[in-house]
Amino acid sequence: MIQKCVQEDFETIWEVINDGSAAYKGVIPADRWHEPYMPQEELKTQMKEGVQFWCYKENEEILGVMGIQDKADVTLIRHAYVRSIHRNKGIGSELLTHLAAIATLPVLIGTWADAIWAIAFYEKHGYRLLSNSESASLLRKYWNIPFRQIETSVVLASPDWKSEN
User: Fold this and answer.
1) For 2-157, which CATH superfamily applies?
2) Cross-strand pairs, 53
3) What does the DSSP assignment read for the chain?
4) Contact 89, 56 (CB under 8 A)
């Protein structure tokens, strides 16, 4: 079942993100990997900046999380993670489908350029990989991330996105 997360879910959201992010270890640039992948303070900041998390639950256990954030004229999908032992069971697809359905603006999704499985997942759901130059421009405009992360990331867009280039 998909439901909006509440403040009491904070620790579990943090656990799921850091468990699910293990897939990036050894894939993303070594200078961008750290333990934990997302410190609690960073998660708190993301939530204060408007990232609303939704979760996929089975038997009252949170198996996956995905955030959504409206930024100006777009909706961002943020921090999409499924617990390692529950991957490839359709949980991410259900979360993405739900969040796309509630989005009222064109959707943009940022991910690591070397995370080819993540890019393929979003493309399978109809998102289009944008050019490197457009990705960099959008990452600077809508995300608050370091330059090094911009250099090593890409953006995918929903079908209703009108490219700037």
Assistant:
1) Gcn5-related N-acetyltransferase (GNAT) (3.40.630.30)
2) 67
3) -EEE--GGGHHHHHHHHHHHGGGGTTTS-GGG--SSSS-HHHHHHHHHTTPEEEEEEETTEEEEEEEEEEETTEEEEEEEEE-GGGTTSSHHHHHHHHHHHH--S-EEEEEETT-HHHHHHHHHTT-EEPPHHHHHHHHHHH----HHHHHTEEEEE-TT-----
4) no
How far is the C-alpha of 134 from the C-alpha of 143, rounded, in Å?
A: 13
Measured N-to-C along each axis, helices 91-102 and 116-124 cross at an angle, to the nearest 10 degrees, of: 60
* pLDDT tens-digit series, residues 95-149: 999 999 999 999 999 999 999 999 999 999 999 999 999 999 999 999 999 999 9
Q: What is the pTM of this model?
A: 0.96
